[in-house]
Write a structure and sequence with these properties.
Number of strands: 0
Number of helices: 9
Shape: globular
Helix content: over 70%
Number of domains: 1
Strand content: under 5%
Length: 243
């Protein structure tokens, strides 16, 4: 009985968030087209801005939702729920799902340096060539995990969001901003890691990837995950109960 209510809750929340998430995905496509020629370093900077911002907003919403529906709870419990629901799911949304979307769409075409490293690897001249190849292959690793590589930005952002939610548990504005920021973080990850150029056709193909990258994880993070832990399935955003 409880499981059926939880599944029904998930269905309602996902349906309620489809239109706004689709609008966010469109802004993500525009984002990719506007910044497609800025280079890897600048794309990395954008990701380092939007991903921690996403984690901050996600932590605020996740922790607030949990605290609103689990009033008699301790701070350390809210910290755990807020951190897992923000950092864990934001990583899935901003990094993992866009990365595999890029792979499926063929954006990870081997670069010239990668092909050159493969040639050097099979070169029989010396062991130095093989060592150079190994270094180049390590450099071509593309999945970027913010909570590890920008831990000094991401983890403090999560902590700040959780503390704000503890003292002021409100969710409506931050949830809407969360979806937009998450879309832009996912777009920045694509710009930072894709090996082929971002054309208009590629950007339009990424529309579905951006939609799924934000739609499923963000609804899970902000609504389903914290409410399932409270044991009280409620259709919060779908029925406009968030304050």
């Amino acid at each position: 009985m409880v499981l059926s209510k939880q599944l029904e809750q998930l269905r309602i929340e996902l349906k309620a968030h489809m239109p706004f998430t689709a609008m966010g995905a469109v802004t993500g496509v525009v984002f990719m087209l506007l910044f497609r020629n800025i280079g890897t370093s600048a794309s990395h900077t954008l990701f380092a801005i939007f991903h921690p911002s996403h984690v901050l907003l996600s932590a605020m919403v996740t922790a607030a939702m949990f605290k609103l529906h689990k009033k008699q709870t301790k701070l350390w419990v809210v910290i755990i729920v807020g951190y897992v629901g923000s950092v864990g799911i934001a990583t899935l949304s901003d990094s993992v799902m866009p990365y595999f979307g890029e792979k499926v769409l063929g954006l990870h075409i081997p670069a010239h340096s990668e092909l050159h490293s493969e040639h050097l690897h099979h070169d029989e001249e010396s062991g130095e060539a093989e060592q150079h190849s190994t270094k180049t292959e390590k450099h071509s690793s593309k999945l970027h995990l913010g909570f590890i590589e920008e831990w000094y930005l991401v983890n403090p952002a999560a902590a700040m969001g959780i503390l704000i939610a503890w003292w002021y548990p409100r969710t409506k504005i931050t949830h809407a901003a969360h979806i937009l920021i998450s879309t832009w973080a996912s777009s920045a990850h694509v710009l930072m890691t894709a090996e082929s150029s971002i054309t208009i056709g590629v950007a339009m193909s990424m529309l579905v990837v951006l939609f799924l990258s934000v739609w499923l994880p963000c609804c899970m993070s902000d609504i389903v995950f914290p409410l399932l832990l409270t044991g009280e399935p409620k259709h919060c955003c779908a029925d406009c109960h968030c304050q």
